[in-house]
Amino acid sequence: MQYDEKRLTRIVATDCGSTTTKAILIEWVDGEFRQTIRGEAPTTVEAPLNDVTKGVENATQELEELARLKYKNPNIKFMEDGKFVIPRKGDIGVDAYVSTSSAGGGLQMMVTGVVASMTGESAERAALGAGAIVMDLIASNDKRMNHEKIERIRQLRPDMILMAGGEDGGTIKHVVEMAELVAGADPRSRLGSNKLPVIYAGNKDAQTAISETLQDKVDLMLTDNLRPKLEQENLGPARDKIHDLFMEHVMKQAPGYDKLMSWTVGPDHDQVPIMPTPAAVGNIMQAIAKDESIEVVGVDIGGATTDVFSVFTEDHVFNRTVSANLGMSYSISNVLASSGLENILRWVPFDIDENELRNMIKNKMIRPTTIPSLLEELVLEQAIAKEALRLAFQQHKEFAVTLKGTQRQRDISEAFSQSTSGNTIVNMMTLNLLVGSGGVLSHAPRRHQSVMMMIDAFLPEGVTRLAVDSIFMMPHLGVLSEISTKAATEVFRKDCMVYLGSCVAPVGKGKIGKPSLYAKLELPGGKVWEQDIPFGEIRLIPCGEGEVAKATLKAAPGLWLDKEKNRELTIDLHGGVVGIVLDTRGRQPFVLPTDAASRVPLLKKWMKELQAYPETILV
């Protein structure tokens, strides 16, 4: 149900995180929706309070107090008698209250399939897209013995299981065998003693056999096959069922959530379901991609995990991955183990003893809430962040692929390029917008550091716009889009996004110092910036937020600027709080010298050009 601005003049949205409940106030102001006030309070889902609504009340109380101060009106109130007043009556109440949640560990799922790389991977995509953490994928061909699979199901105790396998009309033998394993495990849910919810989204011909096998053991739900044919994926019905079960089973058993669910309503008192936080972030990403017909990549780097979201192709295919072992505090040692010391040190513009770096990483792991106190520590932490982001994005590209196992007709050009099913759909050359969020990106001391980390980690190609989420309100806007896409997208553009600028990066090889890119930028106010940039350089041209520069770009032979491999472009480049970055360091490949004597002067030169750090550390 979508409402217009006449019905939605004041909205409260909350995100109940595992430690903090963040509340925002969105209002219809001067003919547009704006985010006006923000409040937060500790989440109260655990002892001693054991009631998530207490944290929501405290965060909303902060909103009320700030609203009274801002509007110099002591009568403003959003709640009365411990609940929201809906709809709004003058100074009292709001028109809607919506919420997301990742408290209590979020939504934890297991998925099963017949072939791990086909139906198993489709089931994983469905679960991740619905905002779940996938604890394990069990498949007929995963080389584990049956007793090991049964033991694994018992041990993990997920919130629910999603079962897939077989195309409609195909053999039912293997998918029934998977059901027998689940029945043999007699699984229990993580919260409460109720039967474990299981969604079956496989071969529809096997539904009767699956019901007979599982109905006494689990709470079974049947839905459409998520892979009805090998060359077709239908994830929508499975994702919808996951959302329904998340509300009915996981939310209802968490302390205080039944009360919270009664609060989340629109102007007509219609229920607005609570969404898992990552699913809400995916929602706003898709809404923006569709609204502006663009391709988007978003990343949220946290202390323990890194989530990557993407919307690619004309069909706006949405993918999400969770790198559960890559983060900046609890999981920081895993970043070192996964990337290796050399890959972290290659981003550090000074000599450092390896033991000193290891000690810094271990200290961060055992004291996860500390922030760098020395400039050198900040540089090291941001070098680690580049590697965490690079590895998480690499995993995402390997997961966001065309369907495996499909057969299709090839033309002669494809025969020579050896393209196969299972290729990544992530194309950096067609990417329009790259959005970063999470403490290390959103709260970097200088926005220039966020630009540096995003460019070095993601290596955008061609022309890409860069932004960070100002106060991590993407979850709030994702669930808000369920009742007003207009409100969500307007606030996203005006208040959520801090546009950093644009990056232009020609793709191809070149020789250091040889001509690489001619650029002429007609800037606002009549100024013209013009230069022939050698290969291996970075240039930063100031161009403010909301400003546009008319650019004429010409790449040298062997380099190109767009998916058609054009060497010349005339294009509008959007500015931002940092400006426009011209990066001629090469792509496919991007090469950093391996010896420190050559690499360190280059890093210092690039960082100086980007104004990433004070001069004192870059001399």
What strand line-up does the widest sheet have? 15-14-13-16-17-18-26-22
Strand content: 15-25%
Task: Characterize the main sheet.
Answer: 8 strands, mixed
Number of strands: 26
List unreliable stretches of 5+ residues. Answer: 407-421
- Average pLDDT confidence is 90
Supply the helix-strand structural class: alpha/beta
Helix share of residues?
25-40%
Number of helices: 18
Shape label? globular
Number of domains: 3
Distance between the termini: 59 Å
- Please compute the radius of gyration using only Cα atoms: 26 Å
Describe this structure in words.
By secondary structure, this protein is of the alpha/beta class. It folds into 3 domains: 1-103, Ubiquitin-like (UB roll), CATH 3.10.20.370; 106-253, Cobalamin-binding domain (Rossmann fold, 3-Layer(aba) Sandwich); 296-617, no CATH class. It is 34% helix and 25% strand. Strand 1 and strand 2 (20-29) form a beta hairpin. The protein is globular and about 70 Å long. 49% of the residues are buried. Mean pLDDT is 90; it is low at 407-421.
What's this model, at a glance?
By secondary structure, this protein is α/β, with parallel strands linked by helices. 34% of the residues lie in helices and 25% in strands.
Topology of helices and strands:
Layout: E1 10-16, E2 20-29, E3 32-42, H1 52-71, E4 79-80, E5 83-84, E6 96-101, E7 107-113, H2 116-129, E8 132-139, H3 146-156, E9 160-163, H4 173-185, E10 197-200, H5 207-214, E11 219-222, H6 236-253, H7 257-263, E12 275-276, H8 277-292, E13 296-301, E14 306-312, E15 317-323, H9 332-339, H10 341-345, H11 354-366, H12 375-399, H13 412-417, E16 433-437, H14 439-442, H15 447-458, E17 462-469, H16 474-480, H17 485-496, E18 497-505, E19 507-508, E20 515-522, E21 528-534, E22 538-541, E23 548-555, E24 559-560, E25 568-574, E26 579-583, H18 596-609
Parallel strand pairs: 1-6, 6-12, 7-8, 7-9, 9-10, 10-11, 13-16, 16-17, 18-26
Antiparallel strand pairs: 1-2, 2-3, 4-5, 13-14, 14-15, 17-18, 19-24, 20-21, 20-23, 22-26, 23-25
Helix pairs in contact: 3-4, 4-5, 8-16, 8-17, 9-12, 12-15, 16-17
